[in-house]
Model the fold of this input.
Amino acid sequence: MSTTPITVAVIGLGNMGTQHARTLASLPGVELVALCDAAPGRAETVSREVGSGTALTSVEELWNLPGSGPDAVVIATPHYDHVPLGLEALSRGKHILVEKPIAVHGKAARQLVAGIHAAQSADPRIVAAAMFNQRSWGHWQKIRRMIQDGALGTLVRATWIITDWFRTQRYYDTGGWRATWAGEGGGVLLNQCPHNLDLYQWFFGMPARIRGFAGIARYHTIEVEDEVTAYFEHENGMVGHFITSTGESPGTNRLEIVGEMGKLVFEDGKLTFWRNSRSMLEEIRTSHKAFTVVDHQQEEVAFTWDGSGGHREILENFVAAIRGEEPLLAPAAEGIHSVTLANGIMQSSFDGASVTLPLDEDRYEKHLQQLIAGSTFRKAAPGGADPAGGTAAGPADDFSSSF
Done:
């Protein structure tokens, strides 16, 4: 193992960027060399707090640091900046870790993926990761292994009610970019649910068709979606339901997966498997009884998880991948799938009809630009909100309880 530290810079010091800086400053084998944020004084404040990192106010200063600059860059800016900053860093031979979502729309995500492939063709050692921290959580990993190992057999349905992303109006008001078409490009699907949409495709693959229903500003004074219901149709016949909201308290996080060999449910921190004694599909075809159920037993499924948010684990894995010690848990190139699902849901809602994948990415981008051009929404942000998600008057909110 190399003893040379991996040098890292963080661009964007809002809620998540600040947390990443704190973590990086504490990781062994990592040197946090630069902190960059456009808000006056923000980088200096974080640098003093974590005890490392040159404070910068522009990415130009970062690229012009003495020597070759940092080995790696963590990008935690507002969404639209993820792709241009990622491409610039890759062009300079830097490893990148991009906050979710990797892009606002599929066309931009595809540009970043192409940039990753080009950089890795020039230097196969380049590592590009995304902050899909929930991939490190034990219950999600266990569910994926059970699906891949065939414990449920042929899958027929997945229903995810994920409404525990509750947000107040203050949350939306303390970032001038948040919940606007021009600043964020969407709402709950692009801010909170990239995690869940990423996990959905990680478990089940991409659907063939999407029908989406989006509630625009149902609970909050914003101009984007804060409530969504979606229906996914897969080529193999499986269907999926996806229900989310930032306006429900108490919310629900219940994932129910049904396969021919039983039902798997995650809710309230428990993973439960109702295991069938034989295939329900076979029972349907061959039973001589009109009214019956398949014999089954209920099992509590054990998994390992330390209860953390998983951000540290993704950062540790990123550094280990740079050293060639571990494969990436969350490759940035896979981030295009959650973007596509989010865009597909919204396009279907706009159209009032199902959409088929692959999505017409040019059409979606054009629609988004029309929403931006036609927007009359104006936000009055308290405390002098800065574009990185914190405020010029003080530190960013503590998001440690919301992952």
In short: The chain has 13 helices and 15 strands. Residues 383-396 have pLDDT under 50 and may be disordered. The chain has two domains: 6-133+310-331, 134-301+338-374.
